[in-house]
Design a protein that fits this description.
- The structure is a homotrimer.
- By secondary structure, the first copy, chain A, is an alpha/beta fold.
- Chain A is 39% helix and 15% strand.
- Chain A has a five-stranded parallel β-sheet, with helices on both faces.
- In chain A, α7 links the parallel β6 and β7.
- In chain A, α1 packs across α11, α2 crosses α11 and α5 crosses α6.
- The longest helix of chain A has 19 residues.
- At the B-C interface, α2 and α11 of B face β2 and α3 of C.
Chain lengths: 315, 315, 315
């Protein structure tokens, strides 16, 4: 597997992370200074999506086009043709990678991005493979945190909601563990708590963390202390013992105008979207509710990433 | 709501209409003189379609690309992602409008374009919202009439077919009422007659109109008098009392080679397509059957509109 | 019907074939010498697909974009709009061809490309119409054979597998019959043998051929003699008398590492994909297994073809 693939959070050391954030900064500067951006003119991105994902699909499409490049879309390619059998996953990747210059892959199975990278003729960017990894979203979140707070060392980050199933939170935690003075809060319903391997990983890397399960008072304390509140949806179907627990949990892990009052002035709210009950529109106008502004930072990161995997310098 | 949105026919005064027609003329001239057209290089149009519409989708896609711009497609975004709940309409618009420069929206609910404009970060062009409005199609029709006849003042226009449900006829009637010497004919089955508010609007604006319901002889007279015949499909499912009435109506409101004989030499036939029984292919070769030629005029209008909402001068 | 349409194999004489292969060569040379390729800047290709075909759709999309052109996609346009009846095939072609500069059409009915060409305002390229024709794939195969072997005269080509239903093999056989010294092998199950009209065509053109049905030993001899082995899938549902025959046939007409040993050193394997049991991944690494490398040659041919039908010189 060549270095230019973006497969999983574990592949990056701190130097690689910093280089990616720096590429995003160069794109940001070019954009803000209205410098020419057609760095990928003549290149073709293939968006190879085995499952629907409006946001990831559109965001990479837009990022590639901002760089003067083209995008070809392959949606649900399980049926290679309407008339013939088959076309297994590897052959689909071989064919598509013969026709484009870089692939963003979204698939429903863990490990698909790695399998694709083993046979692809061009770089693979993992745009989410099942419950496993979504490293580009985590890179974007890391970049947003850096831009919001001016740096990452020394920050305390609270992950709130469904910590068991969030690919992004797993990947972002890997990244954060490479910085100094980090403190992490995990606030969730008991049925959606962070998996044990993540806690073990943090202990091995000497990153202090605090886990708070179904605890309204502790949640308020975390809200008042953390520098970043990273919220996610709480999915109803994980609550097996009736809806009472679900109803209680979603009330606890919700930001309301009154919980906003106990937040610090420079604490920012992030959310990977779509949102549900946990993030009411009433707080959208608060200057700390930056979730829509961050979409633009995400584009700088995606653009920098596309240039890097294609070997095109951005500075 | 900013001025740059294109939401409904009522938002335009005559000056605004003339400016849009003039922008289309500038694009037409540039095209015919082979002048550079890449006015929207680097810009991205987002085609956000909650319902399928081959024609509107393709026509705006093509118009944007003729101007050197890019197009990103978001089809059926109700499922924001395959794995999570929700993403309400407003959030979808907020996210998409963070990633593109202008949106063409097609939706099945009345008022969707207005709701979108209230939260969008970029201009919204209403590409049809349910039974309510389809202002771009009406602008195109207005432009085509002007090009066909060399002006709009003094013309008599016959609307024929399903006048109850045609968004375009409603919008176009609003526009025509701003010109001088206009005369309007409404020729339709009784069950598909023009709604009362439109007639009231014409009376208030002193525009003479004549309504003819299920009347074969009157229809022929209208065909022989009007400067523009604007036909639409007659939908079967609005005829509740058996199919006899439907069969009779569709015979009345049909153009045949013999009705073509009583038309004036400079009367033109328009149709928003797709067609059904009302417009047989036998008359396609008649020089007054201009419905396919007009598609190119429609593109000049769409291109001018895209430039205007993006604030890019075309002259 | 204008000459610029690409509808069926029978439309090409040898001169026309050589001009197309030569156009592909010019594109190949421009690509390899990194010369500017934006020959179709400002042009729009419409991919009008009534049935799904990942490969043909993506390959033409990519080819057009490599030439600096744009692509608009119209998928499954049977429903012209969500709200109205109809839009017959001819009107769909008339509308789409008013908005783009060239159309690649894929349809499930034989003769669709010809029907489209009769009403289209722009050139039609047949991207497969039902069981009838797929001339672009056959042109690509012809070009690949020429590049692999340095010429076509004097070659022996073995068609293997489902010869009854392969549009490409039919078209390619028409092309090969125009060259000198060609010898053709047809190796297939009896239920999937080449149709009689093709054999008659070869006899009329004095092209020697040998047909081998369900014969393991003869198949090995063919493999050892032919210059090109052109494999296709063997579809199970054509074997009506139980699965025994299917099981036996798919073992016979399969390339394995041991059959590879009896192939000549300069015999190449082609396959239109997707593959099934007949082409195991074990042989992918063999230098004679060129099926993925050939995709790039196919792109040169598609690019040359797009330039030709649009009247843009490539040399």
């Amino acid at each position: 597997m060549k270095n230019s693939h973006i497969i999983e959070a574990q592949q990056f050391n701190k130097k690689a992370l910093q280089e990616i954030l720096s590429a995003a900064d160069h794109i940001k500067e070019r954009t803000e200074r209205n410098l020419p951006l057609d760095l990928l003119k003549g290149k073709i991105l293939g968006n190879l999506f085995f499952v629907k994902s409006m946001r990831t699909n559109l965001a990479f499409d837009s990022a590639m086009k901002r760089l003067g490049g083209n995008v070809s879309h392959v949606d649900f390619p399980e049926t290679f043709s309407s008339e013939l059998v088959g076309g297994d996953f590897e052959d689909t990747v071989r064919v598509v990678s013969s026709l484009v210059d870089v692939i963003v892959l979204r698939h429903y199975l863990s490990g698909s991005a790695k399998r694709a990278a083993e046979v692809s003729f061009v770089p693979i960017i993992n745009g989410g493979d099942g419950p496993a990894q979504h490293p580009t979203q985590a890179l974007i979140d890391l970049y947003c945190i850096e831009k919001l707070k001016g740096g990452i060392d020394g920050l305390s980050i609270a992950f709130i909601g469904d910590l068991m199933n969030s690919r992004t939170i797993r990947s972002l935690t890997y990244f954060l563990a490479k910085y100094s003075g980090i403190k992490i809060y995990f606030a969730s319903p008991r049925v959606l708590k962070i998996q044990d391997d993540m806690k073990e990983y943090l202990r091995e890397n000497n990153i202090p963390y605090h886990e708070s399960l179904d605890h309204a008072e502790e949640f308020k304390e975390i809200v008042s202390k953390a520098d970043i509140l990273y919220l996610t949806q709480i999915p109803k179907d994980h609550f097996t013992n009736g809806t009472d627990d679900y109803g209680r949990s979603r009330e606890i892990f919700r930001l309301t105008p009154s919980t906003m009052k106990i937040m610090k002035k420079d604490t920012y709210i992030m959310h990977p979207f779509p949102r549900d009950y946990e993030l009411p529109v009433e707080i959208d106008q608060d200057p700390r509710a930056v979730y829509f502004d961050l979409i633009k930072y995400g584009q700088f990161l995606r653009m920098g990433l596309l240039c890097r995997v294609l070997g095109v310098p951005v500075d």
